[in-house]
Amino acid sequence: MMPREFSTIELTIDEQVATIWLNRPESGNGINLQMMTEFKTAAFDLEANPDIRVVILRGRGRHFSVGGDMAMFTEAGDALPRVIADVITNFHDALLSLRRSTAASIAVVHGACAGGALSLALACDFVVAEDKAKFAAAYRKLGASADGGMTHALTRALGQRRALELLLLSDTFTASDALQMGLVNRLASSDNLESEVVRMAGILRGNAPASVRALKGLTYQAPTTSFDQQLSSELAAFAQCAGTADFREGVSAFAARRQPVFKGA
Fold first, then answer.
1. Tell me: the pLDDT tens digits for 75-127?
2. Which residues form a coiled coil (predicted)?
3. For the chain, which residues make up each domain, given as ranges?
4. What pLDDT does 76 receive?
5. Considering the entire predicted model, what is its pTM?
6. What are phi and psi of 138, to 5 degrees?
7. C-beta separation of 123 from 148 below 8 A
8. DSSP letter, residue 261
9. What are the C-alpha distances in Å from 112 to residues 8, 33, 131, 217, 220?
10. Is 155 helix (H, G, I), strand (E, B) or coil?
């Protein structure tokens, strides 16, 4: 199936790897209602496509995204609360779709990554950043609260005190800071960023979809689940994976000392 055509994002699919480009470079890929509506549509299409193994999120132009589009905030007038609610609803629906998907998601960050864009990156399964990228929570500068699960992601990664420090005291922070805090997985120079993304996507593409879905679900539920509940969930997930053709292929490949070829069955 050919991907849809969009105006504020761009969707490409190549060998089970989908790439969603935020495509408003003239505004620093500022997030507006049309972008989030299209992003939700793309995310739902990819979730429903069993052939997709990896989803990569990127930004056209100089930045991953500067966050919310300031023009939208000023032009909406008295309708701004309703517009913001529509933007965030579509945004959150898209993020939930990415989280449910059997595909692993990678945010590839360069330039600025602020506000809702930081939430978007943190909602992905993996974040790879150019070593010169700059990050910012930014919401306090607008007199606003956070969206896109930022308070959830930061509190899980940093604890309550560090999360509040980042939200209420910080300005920008560097890619090195983000790596040290555990907010990104890898840093790469501009010359090596592409090869690192290709390397990670290649590994993820080779994983069995049932395994990916199970491990994502187990990992994301773990911080709020008791040990005995987690053991029960792991038992159920392993038994479900064991009933797949991919599991039989994995066992056969291990015994034969070859790389498995998982077909999503």
1. 888 888 999 999 999 999 999 999 999 999 999 999 999 999 999 999 999 99
2. none
3. 9-205, 209-256
4. 82
5. 0.93
6. 75, -20
7. yes
8. -
9. 18, 20, 12, 30, 27
10. helix
